[in-house]
Amino acid sequence: MVDRGACELEFRDTNRARDLRGALRSLVEQIGRDSISVMHVCGSHEQAIARFGLREGFPEPLNVIMGPGCPVCVTDAPEVDEGVALVQQGVDVATYGDMLRVPGTSVSLADSRALTGGPGQPGRVHVVYSIDQAAELARKTRNELVFFATGFETTAVTTAAAIVSGLPPNMSVLSAHKYIPPAMDIVARTPGTRIEGFLAAGHAATITGWGLFRDFARRHRVPVVIAGFEPLDILAALVKLLGLIRDRDPVVANLYPRCVTKRGNRPAQLLLWRVFKPQEGRWRGIAPIPNGNLRLRDEWAYVDARRRFRIPETQVEPDRPSACICGQIMTGLASPTDCPLYATDCAPATPIGACMVSTEGACRIWHEYGSRPAALGGAP
Amino acid sequence: MSSTGPVISERVSMQDGAGGRAMRSLVEEIFLPGFESDQEGVIGLSAMDDGAAIRLGDRWLVLTTDSHVVHPIFFPGGDIGRLAIAGTVNDLAVMGATRVLGLTCAAIIEEGLPKTILRRIQRSIREACAEAGTSIVTGDTKVMGRGELDGIILNTSGIGMCERVVSDAGLHPGDRIIVTGSLGDHGMAVMAVRHELELDGDLESDVMPINDLIDAALRVGGSGIVAMKDPTRGGVASALHEMATKSHVGIVIAEVCLPVRAAVRSASELLGIDPLRIANEGKALLGVRPDRAADVLDALRHHPKGRDAAIIGECFAERAGSVVLDTGFGRRLLTEADGEPLPRIC
Q1: What's the number of CA atoms in the CB half-sphere (13 Å) around residue B236?
Q2: Which of A147, A338, B8, B91 satisfies CB 3.0 to 4.6 Å to A134 for a cystine?
Q3: Does A379 touch chain B (CB under 8 A)?
């Protein structure tokens, strides 16, 4: 009845983990430099690395950095403002729990109901864990309900599927979906980048296929390894990646073959591009990313909240002065602990940057699990 | 890592009632001033323990109070009535007062609540009292207007007697941490219905009075049981933090030893919610001297409510006040939750 056997699961075998850590150490010695930086682009990877305490076992020179892999973190303040404006207009907004406390220009969705100034009663803010759950909420009310859709292409496919199969008439979608491949390009091109290889997110690659990353690897001359999310998946992928770095072999390796194929999930891709079109848009703290935002195509205008409602545009100065270094963290130029606000003014209870809000954000994850292993200090 | 703790805002937030650091700050800042009683023979508010204790001759009178709001009122495995009894009985039990002399019950009811619901709640209060070997001896009833509260609020207080008070601050390096059963059952069951998550598996709250179970442990462990706490809101993480901070020890927990039901484990993996950071309503954490740990564990496991009890960790002199989780892959901090955890995106 009680499951004591998590460690007996195929991908949680601590003995195999020890072997893989040994392999990492000898690869690092063979490479022979005192710093080797690689980047993953997925909050779930950072979660797994921190949650399982994997960093403690990484050899000293290996620096595994989280890139722009948190969809909630890169959702820009004006996008949050759109949701807040809808609530003020009396529209119900449903979104993922992570999105609630992400700061907009002035307030977050969580605080939007307290904001005065809207005519009449403000709408309600619902936390859902899927668009289908939002559709069920819409069916139970006569009020207009908007699904504030965030997430990368993986989550966008579920939004697309729901739209194609038909939403309740009082429901529409505010898409803040993001497309990760163009953001990886920006990071790889960032001047001063020290990234020598990438781990690509296994779940996104399940949809896009690993073939998609071949161009990227060739263009930037960096190896890419597709990685799953269990501790052994990550360790094995790092071993592969360091091998490719040692051999100066900028190719794509798929270490998640139990889910990922070269071409990916074709029906899902068709669905994604039937509903969404890529468009340039600002990612919070990073830059305008060409083709980085996923917006609804014209044929789905009738479920597009931006066209169903009149949403006032908010203007933000692109570089508001703040000590928050979210952007540098997400492009791999800095670590959360480099930020002067980290764990002082900016903490999960009082977040300043989006990276401290979302459970997929690097700052939040480090705060929760204890940043670098050195922070464990004298503990036995 | 440096942390200055949460910034105190001038308005009360939901986090201030979530059982973690924010709530302790609120109590210490607003409610405690003027009541820092150091009176001889009284363990009072400043101890910030599960209840208070007043010395009467060679024994201690232990008292505690707890208000209960839960949405929904009825959830898999229990309801607000059972919760109100278990909460207060268990708070007394983990102070060492396993014999509960009597309980009070105050109900604040929303206008319009069907009386059938009250009858169901009363029945489960009665059943839980019988299970705990106690009774409601006095009470109070108020009705408030429709919309002024969510259905019903129950407040229960309880008194018990014991010869030795067990605080939550008595841990020493070397002591073992024992948990009396599976973790995260209540939090996950309530979260699943509250967020209308359709999850496979049998998620059921563990809400139950465990004064009989604690009594069985104390009979065997005696003064070898040096600290106890029930890991309710905020879960095991918050409870261990409080114990570590007050006792000035570091605690290392071994993840492979944690008893977690398969249904809770899969729900937690799916939702990204740590079973160590959500509520339990029928469990206790015991700090036990190393030479008594095996016997106490044995006594717990022989009790029908303690079959899944386990030794989950050990106390150290290093890193006083912090809790470290050894995952088998490496170690990391087990921090306290700030507010109620929310299901994640993907």
Answers
A1: 32
A2: A147
A3: yes
Residue range A87-135, pLDDT digits in tens: 989 999 999 988 888 888 888 898 887 665 556 788 999 999 899 999 9
Q: Which two tokens stand for residue B33?
A: 């001033």
Instruction: Verify whether the Cβ–Cβ distance A72 to B345 is below 8 Å.
Output: yes
Number of domains in chain A: 3
Same-domain check for residues A165 and A271:
yes
Dist CA B91 CA B194 (whole Å): 25
In a domain, B269, yes or no: yes
**Beta carbons of B2 and A344 less than 8 Å apart:** yes
CATH of the domain at B104: 3.30.1330.10
Q: In angstroms, what CA-CA distances link B336 with A194, A236, A368, B172, B231?
A: 34, 31, 8, 21, 12
N- to C-terminal Cα distance for chain B?
Answer: 29
Residues A158 and A200 occupy one common structural domain: no
Domain that holds residue A240: 30-71+194-254
A307 CB near a chain B CB, below 8 Å? no
CATH number at residue A215: 3.40.50.11750
Q: Does A118 touch chain B (CB under 8 A)?
A: no
Q: Which residue range forms the structural domain that includes residue B95?
A: 49-162
Q: CB burial class (10 A; 0-12, 13-18, 19+) of residue B69?
A: middle
Query: Which tens digit of pLDDT belongs to each residue from A170-208?
Result: 999 999 999 999 999 998 988 888 899 999 999 999 999
Residues A65 and A85 in one domain: no
